[in-house]
């Protein structure tokens, strides 16, 4: 099989395409012929040497989400038949023509979606739903603040929050991305001045603040999250693009009785990843089939152009998801919604 490997820690240029043996299939696993794989910031961090793959995952093949079809069924696996269209999350290895996955982590592709659209779903929508709803307990009618609104997770979170009937506020470094987010249901957009946005959140919510904050940025944003949160607000930290350190006013956190929650998908044990697959199947697939959720795809690169895809994502110009095509198609630019 062809696969993208990380030759050594570094920039996009350290990615190389290699011919490798097809992976063996352990007990209870299936092998997927990958059609498309998502490109995520975690892949960029792994490539740079800052986010190593967990044990049991290819250390040098990035890729956390995929869509494709069942290529082979291993011993002890019985949930899928050859050729069935599937998608899902993995802890690594999706930048390859073939991928082995525990069958209980695999989900059927919704009939309403193409393989390309399906590959844009798992990481963004599962991350957003798990953070907002499972952990953040987002309820209809609440106010939610979403940072990096134009990112893959951000565009997914906007749609999920609107599907729940919430008032959605988004932040972005550019007004253009916020304008594009309006077609997804964004109610109010904020271009932060440095890391300051709490006053504007107060203004657009009539002084109420945000019941739930989805923070994909971290760093100095976290201190402002506390100021922007409503009483009993829930702040979910799912990304650290602005840094791992933040100085907080704990007095405000206590006074508001707010919750600060950190979460990540990749490092979870198998049973929790199986629960994430169930979440995708039970809660998100019906919305996807009804087209209440529409994956936002910015660009699709060929597998051999993975370095260019990483450079593009690293440049912070993308809106929604960037994908790799493992087949002959690719190199396209998609509409924002």
How do the helices and strands line up, and which of them pair or pack?
Elements: E1 2-6, E2 15-19, E3 29-39, H1 41-48, E4 65-73, E5 85-89, E6 98-102, E7 107-108, H2 115-119, H3 122-135, E8 143-146, H4 152-163, E9 167-171, H5 175-181, E10 188-190, H6 198-204, E11 210-215, H7 221-228, E12 229-237, H8 250-256, E13 259-262, H9 270-289, E14 297-302, H10 306-314, E15 321-325, E16 332-333
Parallel strand pairs: 8-9, 8-11, 9-10, 11-12, 12-13, 14-15
Antiparallel strand pairs: 1-2, 3-4, 3-6, 3-15, 4-5, 5-7, 14-16
Helix pairs in contact: 3-4, 3-9, 6-7
Describe the structure.
By secondary structure, the chain is of the alpha/beta class. It folds into 2 domains: 2-121 and 266-333, Quinone Oxidoreductase, Chain A, domain 1 (Alpha-Beta Complex); 123-262, Quinone Oxidoreductase, Chain A, domain 1. 29% of the residues lie in helices and 26% in strands. The chain has 10 helices and 16 strands. The protein has helices spanning 41-48, 115-119, 122-135, 152-163, 175-181, 198-204, 221-228, 250-256, 270-289, 306-314, and strands at 2-6, 15-19, 29-39, 65-73, 85-89, 98-102, 107-108, 143-146, 167-171, 188-190, 210-215, 229-237, 259-262, 297-302, 321-325, 332-333. The strands form 3 sheets. Strands 3, 4, 5, 6, 7, 14, 15 and 16 form an 8-stranded mixed beta sheet that branches. Helix 3 packs across helix 4 (152-163), helix 3 crosses helix 9 (270-289) and helix 6 (198-204) runs parallel beside helix 7 (221-228). The longest helix has 20 residues, at 270-289. It starts with a strand and ends with a strand.
């Amino acid at each position: 099989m062809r696969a993208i490997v990380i030759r050594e820690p570094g920039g996009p240029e350290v990615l190389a395409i290699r011919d490798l043996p097809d992976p063996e299939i352990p007990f209870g696993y299936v092998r997927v012929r990958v059609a498309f794989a998502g490109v995520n910031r975690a892949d960029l961090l792994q490539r740079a040497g800052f986010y190593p793959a967990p044990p049991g995952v290819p250390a040098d093949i990035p890729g956390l989400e995929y869509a494709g079809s069942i290529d082979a069924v291993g011993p002890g696996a019985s949930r899928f038949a050859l050729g069935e269209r599937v998608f899902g999350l993995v802890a690594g290895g999706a930048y390859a023509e073939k991928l082995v996955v525990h069958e209980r982590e695999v989900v059927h592709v919704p009939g309403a979606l193409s393989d390309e659209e399906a590959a844009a779903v798992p990481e963004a929508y599962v991350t957003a739903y798990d953070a907002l709803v499972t952990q953040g307990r987002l309820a209809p009618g609440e106010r939610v603040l979403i940072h990096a609104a134009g990112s893959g997770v951000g565009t997914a979170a906007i749609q999920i929050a609107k599907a729940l009937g919430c008032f959605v506020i988004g932040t972005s470094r550019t007004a253009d991305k916020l304008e594009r987010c309006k077609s997804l249901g964004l109610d109010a957009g904020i271009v932060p001045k440095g890391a300051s946005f709490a006053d504007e959140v107060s203004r657009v919510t009539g002084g109420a603040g945000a019941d739930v904050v989805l923070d994909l940025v971290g760093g100095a944003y976290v201190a402002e999250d506390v100021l922007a949160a409503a009483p009993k607000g829930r702040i979910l930290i799912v990304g650290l693009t602005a840094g791992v350190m933040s100085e907080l006013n704990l007095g405000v956190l206590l006074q508001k009785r707010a919750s600060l929650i950190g979460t990540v998908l990749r490092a979870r044990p198998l049973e929790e990843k199986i629960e994430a697959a169930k979440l995708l199947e039970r809660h998100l697939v019906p919305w996807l089939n009804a087209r209440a959720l529409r994956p936002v795809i910015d660009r699709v690169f060929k597998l051999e152009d993975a370095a260019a895809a990483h450079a593009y994502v690293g440049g912070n110009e993308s809106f929604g998801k960037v994908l790799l095509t493992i087949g002959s198609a690719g190199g396209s630019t998609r509409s924002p919604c």
